[in-house]
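Re: weekly structure request thread

Next one in the queue (143 aa):
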Amino acid sequence: MKNLACTRAVKSRTLLAGIALLAGLLTAHAERISNPVAEFAGIDKITGRITTFDVYIDETVQFGALQVTPKVCYSRPDTEEPKTDSFVEVDEITLDRKIRRIFTGWMFAESPGLNAVEHAVYDVWLKACKPKSDVPAPEAKSN
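Done, posted below.
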């Protein structure tokens, strides 16, 4: 009888430990938030002027000779550790008016130097993902 009680106690503790571990794993991976606006910063290396600009997802904004198009922009809830990233395409308009893709990939706001676009004249990096912008939203496209 004593062995049976010990076995049940061990199984109960193991089960509780497993549930606690699982709960910890579930809360450690908070749901990421999909945002409609990506906020970028860009520097014109000729003038030294830094500009902050908002771009709606799947829209394109021109910064100097660069065209910036975010495809997604994810952030975490305020209660979680910051982790903000965006999948971005950047094209360059060349002097002969051709468009050339110079960057496709993820940008990380917490590590701006990791995947910033470094161009001869302009640099662009992700600052934040936002639920709204002061810039008017683009009109809905009709099919």
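Helices lie at 2-28. Confidence is low (pLDDT under 50) at residues 20-27.
Next request, please.
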